[in-house]
């Protein structure tokens, strides 16, 4: 089973610069999508799979340098049911 702590670290490092209550790279979270809490991350699991794993369109321009390995971990976590503590 994939550790949610690993997933949370990836999301924090690669996604929350834009997708958070107080983004550092933008004025507000695109489409209102925020990934600050485990519940928000779980609620967005399908979108994360689509945007970060399948199409790799996020992070936009890969500005935060998400690796293929990180994308694979996200995909595995989602495939295992996107479980949070």
Structural write-up:
By secondary structure, this protein is mostly helical. It has helices spanning 4-14, 38-43, 45-54, 68-79. Helices cover 46% and strands 0% of the residues.
Task: Domain count, please report it.
Answer: 1
Mean pLDDT: 95
Gap between N and C termini, in Å?
A: 12 Å
Number of strands: 0
Shape: globular
- Helix percentage: 40-55%
The radius of gyration over CA amounts to 12 Å
Structural class by helix and strand composition: mainly alpha
Biggest sheet layout: none
Write the layout of secondary structure elements.
Layout: H1 4-14, H2 38-43, H3 45-54, H4 68-79
Helix pairs in contact: 1-4, 3-4
Fill in the keyword field for this structure:
about 80 residues, mainly alpha, 4 helices, globular
Concise summary:
Helix content is 46%, strand content 0%. It is an all-alpha fold and 85 residues long.
């Amino acid at each position: 089973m994939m550790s949610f702590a690993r997933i949370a670290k990836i999301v924090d490092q690669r996604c929350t610069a834009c997708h958070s209550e107080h983004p550092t790279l933008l004025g507000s979270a695109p489409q209102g999508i925020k990934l600050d809490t485990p519940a928000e991350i779980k609620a967005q699991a399908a979108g994360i799979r689509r945007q970060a794993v399948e199409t790799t369109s996020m992070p936009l321009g890969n500005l935060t340098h998400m690796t293929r390995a990180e994308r694979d971990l996200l995909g595995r976590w989602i495939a295992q049911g996107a479980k949070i503590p």
